[in-house]
């Protein structure tokens, strides 16, 4: 079931670049649970690597596994509290630093995540890696 789309980030200050646009489209699709849109954004064989040692850590391959891993992780964060702090692009790769607030068992934990997104020649996501600035602390919080 699709949730109403809510702004994931303040896009006003982001660079006007095709990879940034694709990245924001990816964030929006996850926030609104638009699985049909996600399929159009992914290259065949897409992979997601979630760093650390929490229950969410590991590498997910293929659209189904990537969506399952990303959605499970996304549910651990306060929906309207994400903010992109920095974004840069080079040769088919985007790097972003994102401020989030994790939530677990009624508690909240602010964290900074590092996203590295690789795109194919058609601008589709072929790889996505997520880790935290303080990975050990986030892992302890998430369990």
Plain-language structure description:
With 143 residues, the protein is an alpha+beta fold. It has one domain (14-142): Nuclear Transport Factor 2, Chain: A, CATH 3.10.450. The protein has helices at 18-31, 35-41, 63-74, 135-142; strands at 42-50, 58-61, 83-90, 93-104, 107-119, 125-132. The model is unreliable at 1-8 (pLDDT under 50).
- What portion of the residues fall into strands of 2 or more residues? 35-45%
What overall geometry do the principal axes of the alpha carbons give? Answer: globular
CATH domain fold name: Nuclear Transport Factor 2, Chain: A
Widest β-sheet, arrangement of strands: 2-1-6-5-4-3
Radius of gyration: 14 Å
**Relative helix content:** 25-40%
How far apart, in Å, are the first and last alpha carbons?
A: 27 Å
Q: Total strand count, please?
A: 6
- Given the helix and strand composition, which structural class is it? alpha+beta
Largest sheet: 6 strands, mixed
Determine the mean pLDDT: 89
């Amino acid at each position: 079931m699709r949730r109403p789309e809510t702004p994931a980030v303040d896009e006003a200050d982001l660079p006007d670049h095709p990879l940034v646009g694709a990245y924001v489209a990816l964030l929006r699709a996850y926030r609104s649970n638009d699985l049909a849109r996600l399929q159009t954004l992914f290259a065949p064989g897409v992979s997601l690597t979630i760093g650390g040692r929490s229950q969410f850590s590991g590498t997910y391959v293929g659209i189904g596994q990537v969506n399952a891993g990303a959605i499970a992780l996304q549910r651990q964060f306060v929906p309207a509290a994400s903010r992109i702090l920095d974004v840069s692009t080079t040769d088919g790769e985007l790097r972003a630093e994102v401020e989030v607030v994790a939530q677990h068992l009624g508690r909240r934990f602010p964290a900074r995540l590092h996203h590295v997104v690789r795109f194919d020649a058609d601008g589709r996501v072929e790889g996505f890696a997520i880790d935290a600035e303080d990975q050990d602390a986030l892992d302890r919080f998430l369990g």
